[in-house]
Design a protein that fits this description.
Layout lengths: L12 H24 L14 H23 L14 H20 L15 H31 L13 H14 L9 H25 L7 H27 L14 H20 L3 H20 L23
Helix pairs in contact: 1-2, 1-7, 2-7, 3-4, 3-8, 4-5, 5-6, 6-7, 7-8
Length: 328
Amino acid sequence: MKIKNSVQSISPDISVILMCFGILIACPVRIFQMLKNIDPVTGFFDDYSNFTIIILYAILGLASFLILLLTFLSGRIPAAVAPKGRRIPLGISSIVFAATLFYDAIYNYIPRSQETATIVQNAHSLSTIHHVHSFFAFLSCCYFIVFSISYMTGKSFHKKLKILSLAPLVWAIMRVLERITVIISIVRVSELLLELCAFVFLMLFFMTFARVVSEVNSKGSMWSVISCGAVSTLFLLTYSIPRLMLMLTGNSDSLVNGYPVNFADIGCALFIIIFVVTTLRCGYAVEDVEKMNEEIKAAQAESENEKTPGEDEIPVVHDQSKNTNTEE
């Protein structure tokens, strides 16, 4: 019995609704925690019995589970084909993401002292990871510039960059490696836990995203783009919005050492939201794509079956000059 995409009554829009619902509840809770219950030097909770800890993790866990489950069951998921034509909002979000990636690449090349909360196994290894992170942030920036041009002009230039489409995936992997080099309790430092959760799902998103936009082995994978994109955005904004709000309101001293505002995370979340919404609104039904593919195959088969003179049937041309018999 088929379970995936089996429930027609479930709309994939539920993933975006649940994501927004989770962010609206989790962000105020997170801001309260950072102001009242988190040590900015160590990142540890001051009071582990505080009820907001259970509320935050319960909301994030429940929203993530429901997004993954309901998107998997939804029978109205668009075909795994990227939107085509001019999509100005998608083009704008792509160039914004590219700009934040460029900033991220430059920032990781700037020498900076180790924060007091950061204890690493090998400083040299971490420095190498920072440089690889910067390199792939720059490559990702280049890819999303081309991606933006594609949707600004309506021409699919990005499809020629299939290898480069994997750069955002490696960028996300480097972000994970940077964090796991820290010798510290993931459970006790909630900023670290939230970032790791965000980038685990972000890796899954970019892996499937590359397949869809490059049209390589992408059949049936759009549910993963939508669900993993929504879950990663949920975690990205849950820790990014509070950091940004604290910075803008003059409470930067409440930010945990080693976990500053990362504008690339905000740019990434914006891009994912626009890409998912554009796909849900302008995507293609699975049945339409399958019908289109069948028509293309039928047309190709018909053209191959057509016989041209000079191949299977060679017309006989009689030389009339030799057909004149002379009697002697």
